[in-house]
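Entry type: protein chain
Record version: 2
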Amino acid sequence: MRSVLEPVGERFQLRRLVGAEAVRERLPEQPVREPGVARQERPMEVRADHAAGAAAFEAALAVVAEAGEHPAEWLGAGIEPCAPGVILEACERASLAGLELALDQHVADHAALARDGREGEEAYARHVLAMEAAIAAAEELVAPAHGEHRCASAHCLVELRRLPDETVADLLESGLCGVMKPRRFGGSELGAETLVDVSVELAAQCASTGWVYMLWAAHMWLLALWPADAQEEMFADPALVASSVVSTAGTVERVEGGYRWTGRGFFSSGVDHCQWLTAAVSVRDEETGAEGRKWFLIPRADFEVIDDWHVTGLRGTGSKTLVVTDAFIPLDRVLDDADSQRGTSPGREVNPHPMYGAISQANFTAAMAAPAIGAARGLLAAYGDKLRRKSASATASAAASATVSMARYAAAAAQLDAVQALTVANARRYATAPAAAVGPEGRAKCKRDYAYTAQQSRRAANTIYEECGGSGLAETSDLQRIWRDANAAAAHHGLTWDWQADLWTRASFGLPVPGVNA
């Protein structure tokens, strides 16, 4: 299975612009590359600075304005990645959702793309195939051919309260944990869109597995932001997995060469199998007195795991409390959160993929709602089997009842399709755009949308569970277990709708918004 996730050899480019010929006529003198083979609908490529990108977009807007509507034909074109900020902000100002540009997801092969436009298209096709292979790997991992579904042996997780060792081995062997991992350390760099889809697929079979996988894979993005020496130390272990604590309490002391921290961290999912911990800790600046968040990187020997995860849903995530006592954190294991929010972290110097200079809301937490989608999809599938049997043997009176159930089933399916599409769309739009180009509203939109996605997934699961009747109440029933998991997956504080909705509204009005104004 590992071979399907070998790193994609070339970089790729998503292509989409309006009326290329009409736009080309309006462009100022800029170096425009013609493809090697002439075609009736040939892409253009605007070369390489913010001014050129802005000119291309303004020309496109002019064509749309004259037409009075979006052009009927969308012709391919590529804009190189140093212009995305100008273009994304222009898109938002113009409120033209139809002109959302899917920008370049990689930066390393500009020269190859310049030689022939076909190379960009072929590389993109290979990338799509790699993404599909990752999803296929997730499907294989949880397929019935595995016997008892190592991922979905859900009833054993109730007592174990963490992932089984066999499941962890499967995840690591599959290569799926490397979709956000730098290529230079063996990752595939497939990115946030793949992370979302794979997390949904796994969570549809076992929400606990999907939740832990989502966090482990996302942490590869976070770890890639640390200084190079720290990365070399961590990624030297090919079986590396790391967890985090965002909610912490304790005392921090600035000492020579680093910090000392004594404290506790809460709800660290999957920590039993982790070699490293990332802890978000509030640190007071000695000069200004201002509080700021820093990430401390702590090896397994320096923290204690408290076995206190006794819950009704997501029992297999092992989201336990951690205790750290007088741990020394050297400066090369400290990451300033402000640098990560600006896209200027030390790791950016050695990891050129643009996602490592993009916002955390579209990478580190891009798939936060994916386990809720997956759990709801799992419940939908389980109920669908029941509904299919009921419909096949229905009497005339039962057939009328089945019609109502089928309508609810269809509505829930459409609801889940919609919110998954929303989550993927945000990944496509923001996951590789430079952090400096994404303002408070865009950042708050990502947070708003994954809260909305989680709560809509919860509602879809509850709608389906209402149809399950008494048979869904049995302790041995998959229906009630999945229903509990779906509700637990939407209970994370960061997925609270009222809070995130308020933040986005404030940001859209231009008001100060703590935490998303970076």
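Comment: Confidence is low (pLDDT under 50) at residues 1-119, 145-153.
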